[in-house]
Amino acid sequence: MKVTQEKLPASQVVLEIELTPETTKQNYEEVIKNLASTANIPGFRRGKIPRPILLQHFGSNRIKRNVLDKMISDGLKEAIEQEHIQVIGESTLRSSIDDLIKQYEPGKPLTISVLVDVYPQVEIPQYTNLNVKAEEVKYDPKQVEQILDQERQRRATLIPVEGRAAELGDVVVVDFKGLLTQSESENASGEPSPIPGGEETNFQVDLQEGEFIPGFVSGIVGMNMGETKEVPAKFPADYTNPVLAGKDAIFTVTLKEIKEKELAELNDEFAQEVGDLNSLSELLAHLEKVSRQQAQERTKTNQQEALVQEILKNATIELPETLIQNDIDIILQQTAVKLAQEGQDVNKLFTKEVVAIMREEVRPAAIERLKRGLIIQLIGERESINVPEQEIELKVKQILATYSEGERKNINVEQISSLVYNEVFTQKVLDWLLERSSVELTSAESATNQELAPASLRESVNDSVTEVPISTTATSEE
Question: Which CATH topology does 157-262 take?
Answer without folding.
Answer: Chitinase A; domain 3 (3.10.50)
